[in-house]
């Protein structure tokens, strides 16, 4: 119970510090203090994150790579905090403002994916007692599957890390007056120090401690606005407003369906959402605590329609300034400085959680799966920890390179991350894991097909649009918020749907087709083909020979001829004797005077 009490104590102390800081900010704002002082409040969550990382420092293998001895309630809070990334908190109001009811549908798809991750996928993976997601796949389907799953995890989390750092750098620059790149570097350095010191244990602790702060910061602005219409603060009042279901732009139905499927499946297998739910060493987390984490995230995200409705009334254009719908919301609706700086601090805290979880997961995959699983399988624990920490530095360098090259917008990078997760890991973890006929070959083929199709679609549409449009039938390559258009008219941010369908078809085909008795199937097909051939021939014959057309004269002549050539009708049955006449004998007895008739044929 020590680990649980420690996390609970740290979360309580962190919340008290935040509330005290907010009271100070409100006092400074009321007395007309220098405006720079209230703007320094976002530093408070950063300081809390640094303290938590220092307290969670460790050199133990289980702490660095497995997350330590986290209790069930701590896992539930960590799960909810991990789901509330900055991209999700910003995209939910924007999607509702642009799509109306369809945006709420996307929020529901995200919650469904989160429930699948925590209640369906994570317990199945944890039954293998593996350290990483890729190691769990390898324990079930072999070393090749483990290697492919490790690459899929890395390719999933790198775009997500790039999207989060880009977005949080822009948010921090608006509040603190720093350049976006400098803000990115500062936040990445802070997260790197925390993860190097405590590994996955520090990342989970950040999610559990900062999660309530994120929730409070996100709900307070819309709750304050709702006080003008209700007696109680209701941050979910946007759900009952008529303007919530009004769409500001026309989004095709197939895009919404593709986005919902990609979102649900991608979140369900997202590695950064799985680790808090199954790394606890003292047994499987209870369903009650996991449902608490899912409900906690859902309650926060259902406040997004309030941002959309009141932001629209305040004149915020979600299409022209999507980030401003959340960041500028307190100022545009006339709130004081306290909700504004609190919201910025909450968004920074959400980014810290997501970056820490994704960075720790990616580095653990490098140290435990790529190095320990492929290069040196008998490497000691100390060497794996060293490679894991070195991997954190390499991943940070890769993130900085992606951001400097400006490979895509935040929405495109986040969509690509979800697409890769859904296409590569979705068929195996959601279907193949529970299908008894799934073989190692089927697992390898499913991951390879989904991963290759998605990555190839993104690379071709992004770096070779002219070639792709002219020779690969990818349609007119037009830039959208989710990137250029790829195959079947879908943006590359939704390309995971194609890989998901093909990967699932490959998994089922390779798993089920070898077990079919093909000679019997061939005989049945031949029998069916012969029946169809005979029916087709009869049908063609009926069509080729039309019925004769009879006139009045032609119809009368056959009747007369038939009447002339017809034989005589037999006598009535009543005139024929029952037992006679009998044929007469050929050699009668002497003295017999009867007439002799000969029996025909005798």
TrEMBL record:
<feature type="transmembrane region" description="Helical">
    <location>
        <begin position="216"/>
        <end position="234"/>
    </location>
</feature>
<dbReference type="InterPro" id="IPR038377">
    <property type="entry name" value="Na/Glc_symporter_sf"/>
</dbReference>
<comment type="similarity">
    <text>Belongs to the sodium:solute symporter (SSF) (TC 2.A.21) family.</text>
</comment>
<feature type="transmembrane region" description="Helical">
    <location>
        <begin position="290"/>
        <end position="310"/>
    </location>
</feature>
<dbReference type="InterPro" id="IPR050277">
    <property type="entry name" value="Sodium:Solute_Symporter"/>
</dbReference>
<keyword id="KW-0812">Transmembrane</keyword>
<feature type="transmembrane region" description="Helical">
    <location>
        <begin position="386"/>
        <end position="405"/>
    </location>
</feature>
<feature type="transmembrane region" description="Helical">
    <location>
        <begin position="411"/>
        <end position="431"/>
    </location>
</feature>
<keyword id="KW-0472">Membrane</keyword>
<protein>
    <submittedName>
        <fullName>Uncharacterized protein</fullName>
    </submittedName>
</protein>
<feature type="transmembrane region" description="Helical">
    <location>
        <begin position="146"/>
        <end position="167"/>
    </location>
</feature>
<feature type="transmembrane region" description="Helical">
    <location>
        <begin position="497"/>
        <end position="525"/>
    </location>
</feature>
<dbReference type="GO" id="GO:0022857">
    <property type="term" value="F:transmembrane transporter activity"/>
</dbReference>
<keyword id="KW-0813">Transport</keyword>
<dbReference type="InterPro" id="IPR001734">
    <property type="entry name" value="Na/solute_symporter"/>
</dbReference>
<feature type="transmembrane region" description="Helical">
    <location>
        <begin position="37"/>
        <end position="56"/>
    </location>
</feature>
<keyword id="KW-1133">Transmembrane helix</keyword>
<feature type="transmembrane region" description="Helical">
    <location>
        <begin position="104"/>
        <end position="125"/>
    </location>
</feature>
<feature type="transmembrane region" description="Helical">
    <location>
        <begin position="340"/>
        <end position="366"/>
    </location>
</feature>
<feature type="transmembrane region" description="Helical">
    <location>
        <begin position="77"/>
        <end position="98"/>
    </location>
</feature>
<feature type="transmembrane region" description="Helical">
    <location>
        <begin position="187"/>
        <end position="209"/>
    </location>
</feature>
<dbReference type="GO" id="GO:0005886">
    <property type="term" value="C:plasma membrane"/>
</dbReference>
<feature type="transmembrane region" description="Helical">
    <location>
        <begin position="443"/>
        <end position="464"/>
    </location>
</feature>
<feature type="transmembrane region" description="Helical">
    <location>
        <begin position="254"/>
        <end position="278"/>
    </location>
</feature>
């Amino acid at each position: 119970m020590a680990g649980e009490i420690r996390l609970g104590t740290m979360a309580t102390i962190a919340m008290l510090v935040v509330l005290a800081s907010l009271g100070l900010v409100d006092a400074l704002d009321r007395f007309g203090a220098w405006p720079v002082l209230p703007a320094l409040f976002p530093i408070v969550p950063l300081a809390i994150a640094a303290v938590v990382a220092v307290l969670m420092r460790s050199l133990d293998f289980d702490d660095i790579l497995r997350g330590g001895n986290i209790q069930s309630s701590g896992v539930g809070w960590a799960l909810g905090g991990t789901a509330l990334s900055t991209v999700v908190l910003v995209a939910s109001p924007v999607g509702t403002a642009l799509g109306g009811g369809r945006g709420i549908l996307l929020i529901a798809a995200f919650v469904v994916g989160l429930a699948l991750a925590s209640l369906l996928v994570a317990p199945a993976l944890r039954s293998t007692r593996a350290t990483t997601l890729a190691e769990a796949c390898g324990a079930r389907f072999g070393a090749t599957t483990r290697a492919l799953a490790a690459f899929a995890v890395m390719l999933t989390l790198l775009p997500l890390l790039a999207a989060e750092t880009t977005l949080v750098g822009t948010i921090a620059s608006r509040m603190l007056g720093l350049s976006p790149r400098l803000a990115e570097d500062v936040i990445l350095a802070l997260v790197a120090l925390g993860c190097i010191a405590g590994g996955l244990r520090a990342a989970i602790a950040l999610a559990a401690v900062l999660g309530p702060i994120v929730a409070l910061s996100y709900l307070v602005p819309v709750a304050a606005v709702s006080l003008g219409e209700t007696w109680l603060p209701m941050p979910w009042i946007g759900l009952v407003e008529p303007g919530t279901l009004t769409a500001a732009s026309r989004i095709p139905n197939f895009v919404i369906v593709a986005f919902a499927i990609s979102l649900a499946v991608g979140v369900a297998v997202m590695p950064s959402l799985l680790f808090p739910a199954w790394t606890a060493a003292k047994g499987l987390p209870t369903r009650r605590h996991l449902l608490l984490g899912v409900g906690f995230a859902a309650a926060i995200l259902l406040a997004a329609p309030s941002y959309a409705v009141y932001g629209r009334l305040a004149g915020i254009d979600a299409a022209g300034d999507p980030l401003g719908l959340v960041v500028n919301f307190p100022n545009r609706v006339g709130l004081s400085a306290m909700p504004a700086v609190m919201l910025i601090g909450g968004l920074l805290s959400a980014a810290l959680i997501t970056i820490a979880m994704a960075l720790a997961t990616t580095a653990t995959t490098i140290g435990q799966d790529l190095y320990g699983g492929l290069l040196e399988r008998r490497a000691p624990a100390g060497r794996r920890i060293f490679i894991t920490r070195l991997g954190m530095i390499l991943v940070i360098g890769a993130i900085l390179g992606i951001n400097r090259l400006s490979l895509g917008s935040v929405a495109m990078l986040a969509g690509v991350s979800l697409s890769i997760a859904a296409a590569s890991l979705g068929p195996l973890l959601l279907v193949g894991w529970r299908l008894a006929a799934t073989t190692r070959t089927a697992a390898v083929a499913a991951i390879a097909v989904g991963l290759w199709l998605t990555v190839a679609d993104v690379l071709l549409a992004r770096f070779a649009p002219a070639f792709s449009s002219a020779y690969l039938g990818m349609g007119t390559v037009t830039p959208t918020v989710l990137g250029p258009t790829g195959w079947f008219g879908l943006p590359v941010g939704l390309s995971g749907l194609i890989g998901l369908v093909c990967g699932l078809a490959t998994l089922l085909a390779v798993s089920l087709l070898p077990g079919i008795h093909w000679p019997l199937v061939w005989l049945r097909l031949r029998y069916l083909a012969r029946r169809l051939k005979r029916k087709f021939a009869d049908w063609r014959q009926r069509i080729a020979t039309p019925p004769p057309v009879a006139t009045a004269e032609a119809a009368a002549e056959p009747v007369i001829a038939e009447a002339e050539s017809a034989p005589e009708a037999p006598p009535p049955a009543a005139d024929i004797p029952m037992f006679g006449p009998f044929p007469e004998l050929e050699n009668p007895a002497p003295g017999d005077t009867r007439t002799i008739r000969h029996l025909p044929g005798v």
